[in-house]
Structure formats: C-alpha cells, structure tokens
Amino acid sequence: MDIFLDTFFNWQIVQEAWPILWQGLQATLLLSALVVPIGVAGGIILAVLATVHSPWVKWPLRVWVDTFRALPPLVLLVFIFAGLPFIGIDVGAWGAVAIGFFLNTGAYYGEILRAGIESVPRGQLEAARSTGLTRGQTMAYVVLPQAVRNVLPDLISNTLEVVKLTSIASVVALPELLFQARQAQSVTYNATPIMAAAVAYFVLLWPVVRLLSRLENRQLAGRQ
Q: Keyword set for this entry (predicted)?
C-alpha cells in the first residue's frame, strides 16, 4: 500500500510539480476559452446552412460534416500543423488548434444544433415571417433560441468532451495540463503528476457534469 501511495499520490511531488501543473491548467483554460466558442460558431454556421434546401448546398454540406466527424482530430491537427507548411501555409501551433477544432468540433456542434432547429415547429417560423421578420432575423431571434434550449444537454455534453479533447494540443507543443503532467512525470519518474492532472480535470468539469445531470433530469421530467 505504501508503494502504491508513493507512486500515485505523493504529496511532496505534487508540491514540487505544482508550478508547471498550474501553467498547464492555465493553458488548458485558455485553450477551452478559444476552441469552445470557435466550435459553437462553426456549428451555428453549419446548422443554418442545413436549413437551405438547395442540393448545391445540401450535398457538399453533408460531405463536409461527415468528413470532419469521421477524421480523427489528432490526425487532423497534425496535418494542419506539420503538413500545410509544405505548401507554404504555416499557421503556427495556436492557429492549427483553432482551425482543427473549428473543423472537427464545429461539425459535431452543427449536427446537434441542426437537430435542435428541426425540433422547432414549422409554425413558429411561419408566424415569425408573417410579422415582417426576415429569414435571418427569424433564425436569430425565434428559431435558434428555441433550438438551443431543446438540445442544451447535448451541447453541454459535447462541450465537456471538447474541453477534455484539448489535451491533444500537446502534439503541437502547446503546454496544456496533460502535457505538463507528462513532463513532470518524466522528471520525477513518478505517476503522481498524472493523477494530479486528473484531479484538476475533475474539479474543473464536475460542476458542469452535475449541471448536465440536472438538465437531463428536468428534460426527462418534462416529457413525462
């Protein structure tokens, strides 16, 4: 038992590694603040485009969404960071993360929001248009607010996954939390920094998990 505690829960190593773990946690928070809004913005664009019935929009959009949902985000990030410079496009580490998450998570957010838009009764759209609102105003003021409310648990659940997915930014040398924990582990030859990073993720995300559970229970109660 002593060996287990010393290997995974060594408080002295936590104290020694905390400065770089704190730097990693700050980077993770900054990454989350960047990629979540970018993904949501991409999702809104795709969801709104999905309401266009023209086959010239519908089929290219379907190919786009399916492609970036199917591609592993890690592969996509490496390609953007290391592959594009070969054709003269160097966006840097932060640019690669922004573009990669826009493409990948935007596709997932887009599908969730599309389902939300489709859940809004058609009569709401027609009623809004009859008052003189343009299509864009109807979408912004009438349809999207209801769509977001209808799929809010799914949006929050996807956001949780996006925050955890920021750990792949380490492949382009961005010092997020898990990257810094692995660095500390390689120096201390101890798994405690990894466990400390896991605890930090738990503290960061547990309130959101509880919020998600409450929303899901409320939504379930409303259906009964």
A: Cell membrane, Membrane, Transmembrane, Transmembrane helix, Transport
What is residue 30's predicted lDDT score, i.e. its pLDDT?
Answer: 92
Per-residue pLDDT reduced to its tens digit, 83-121: 888 888 888 889 999 999 999 999 999 999 999 988 888
User: Measured between alpha carbons, how far is 189 from 126 in angstroms, rounded to an integer?
Assistant: 65
**What tokens does 150 get?**
């209808």
Q: What is the pTM of this model?
A: 0.87
Spatial distance between the Cα atoms of 181 and 25, rounded to a whole number of angstroms: 10
Q: Per the structure block, which two tokens stand in for 35?
A: 């990629």
pLDDT over 60 at 223, yes or no: no
Residue 169: which of 31, 34, 26 has the closest Cα?
A: 31
Long-range Cβ pairs for the range 96-100 (8 Å, 24+): 96/172, 97/31, 97/34, 97/35, 97/169, 97/172, 97/174, 98/34, 98/35, 98/38, 100/73, 100/76
* Contact predicate 169/176, CB 8 Å: yes
> For residues 100 and 76, what is the distance between their CA atoms, to the nearest angstrom?
6
